[in-house]
Predict the structure of histidine kinase.
Amino acid sequence: MTCSADVRSLFDAISGPAFLVSARGRIAAANRAAVALLGRDPAGDDVAVLDPDDPAGVRTFVWRASGSTQPILGRLRPKAPDGSVRVLRCHGQRLASAATDDARNVLIQCVAIEERFAALADRVRELNAEVRRRRHIQAVLEESLRERDLLMRELHHRVKNNLQVVSGLLAAACAETSSEDARVALRDAAARVGAIATVQHVLYAHEQADTVRADKIVERLIESLRAGGTLEGCRPTLSLAEVALPIEAAAPLALILNELVTNAAKHGRRDGAPVAIHIGLAKTDGETILSIADDGPGFDLTHTRKRASGLGLVRGLLRQIGGRIEVANRDGATCTIHLRTYPDEDAPDDPSRA
């Protein structure tokens, strides 16, 4: 096929490589961009030069395009003069003016994939590299968190076990002593160590590192006191809201609760009847309220030193966590603990908690 000057000018005006191929698989003409790509004019060559590695695929593509006036998509991989392979995306279609089967010339227009999409491909590669880097960082952080969680759980477990050993030693010493005063002191000390062990048990099962569920501490401590016989002859009831407290308040809270419940069990009896002890936990705006009420005879702080003696420890612990206690006699004794709560970010800077 020969091209007129006007047709040749239009053919050369196509920006990307373009080839005019006969239905028999011969290149009839190539535009300037195609000649520059191959380093020579391929006119007269077999169409296989457009993809030396897959000549059958090229012929199949030309055969399909020769039967359609709509573009057929394909891919070619011709070799440049330096021997490098260029990957071209192309579409081919039969020229609409072809009248006979022998004259089914196919126009193939190409665009270099790497040139057209170079910026996009580079960006995709950068994003993939960034994704891999972030996944690596995430994997390292997750592994560090798992190690930290394991270490924290092991620490809580060991502390809990050590406290239980200390509590057992105190209980053994209590059983061996002949002094009633020493026995009472050792029993109280063992109960207080047990209260701290209860906190460690809750922390061991708790997933938060900066807060602890106060209601879980109350439940666990009451179970421990019941199992240890402190609440023998008592009828404890619980009314607990779900309350989270700063972790530094956990041990003082357990000791305070142990002291007040033990006092209620010891001194709340009236005429030998079982003592009804109610423990309540609630949260209001700005305060967490813990109440321990019994149906005993009550007591007067100004005159009764026996029952009030343990309140000195309670007051000292409350000073540590910024709380206060109220004692009232309403059909028995009711001790109410008020703990001020603050947003986490404000708590360390608030002098009123000291």
User: Anything to note?
Assistant: Residues 98-102, 303-308, 343-354 have pLDDT under 50 and may be disordered. Residues 5-116 form a domain with the Beta-Lactamase fold (CATH 3.30.450.20). The CA atoms of residues 138 and 320 lie 39 Å apart. The two ends are 99 Å apart (CA to CA).
